[in-house]
């Protein structure tokens, strides 16, 4: 089996491949060999880079580990499983806000404003259990 060293450079202290079946767990800055087919998928995400340096190489299991999560539906497959808002274009941000939150953002806004709005929508969804509640100042007192 051909393997490729993949390094995790994301913001989390630890990341686990739960999407592509390797079951590999990375600590931040750590490299591990993964099957070439899995590596090509992981490298589509900015949190993972190819590492040609000399990293400790634990042995790979002979058989791939079953993925923990179900594969994305056709509708979910339009966006990558790990959305990276800081690298999205303005058009992608507007489309993402509409698809995920049902909010029509003005495409004339600056990219930073769009990113901030999408992040805020995500936080609202998280804090309101997926239900966006809008209150005016009089009812919130």
What's this, in brief?
With 141 residues, this protein is α+β, with helices and mostly antiparallel strands.
Description:
The structure is a single chain. The protein has 141 residues and is an alpha+beta fold. Among the domains are: 48 residues, Ribosomal Protein L9, domain 1 (3-Layer(aba) Sandwich); 45 residues. Helix content is 26%, strand content 14%. The strands form two sheets. The protein has a three-stranded antiparallel beta sheet with strand order 4-1-5. A two-stranded antiparallel sheet has the order 2-3.
Largest sheet features: 3 strands, antiparallel
Give the class-level CATH name of the domain at 3-50.
Alpha Beta
Count, helices = 3
Low-pLDDT segments:
132-141
Order of helices and strands: EEEEHEHH
- Radius of gyration, in Å, reads 19 Å
Classify the fold: give the CATH topology of the domain at 3-50: Ribosomal Protein L9, domain 1
Give the quaternary arrangement of the chains.
single chain
Sequence-ordered SSE layout with sheet pairings:
Layout: E1 3-8, E2 14-16, E3 25-27, E4 31-35, H1 36-42, E5 48-50, H2 90-101, H3 111-127
Antiparallel strand pairs: 1-4, 1-5, 2-3
Helix pairs in contact: 2-3
List keywords for this structure.
single chain; 141 residues; alpha+beta; Ribosomal Protein L9, domain 1; three-stranded antiparallel β-sheet; two-stranded antiparallel sheet
């Amino acid at each position: 089996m051909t393997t490729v060293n993949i390094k995790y450079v994301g913001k989390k202290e630890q990341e686990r491949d739960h999407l592509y079946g390797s079951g590999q767990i990375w600590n931040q800055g750590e490299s591990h060999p993964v099957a070439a087919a899995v590596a090509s998928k992981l490298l589509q995400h900015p949190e993972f880079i190819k590492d040609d340096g000399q990293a400790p190489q634990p042995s790979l299991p002979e058989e791939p580990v079953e993925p923990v999560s179900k594969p994305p539906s056709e509708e979910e497959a339009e966006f990558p499983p790990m959305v990276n808002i800081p690298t999205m274009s303005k058009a992608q941000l507007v489309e993402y806000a509409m698809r995920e939150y049902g909010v029509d953002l003005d495409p004339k806004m600056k990219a930073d404003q769009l990113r901030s709005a999408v992040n805020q929508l995500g936080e609202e969804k998280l804090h309101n259990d997926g239900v966006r509640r809008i209150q005016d100042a009089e009812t919130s007192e």
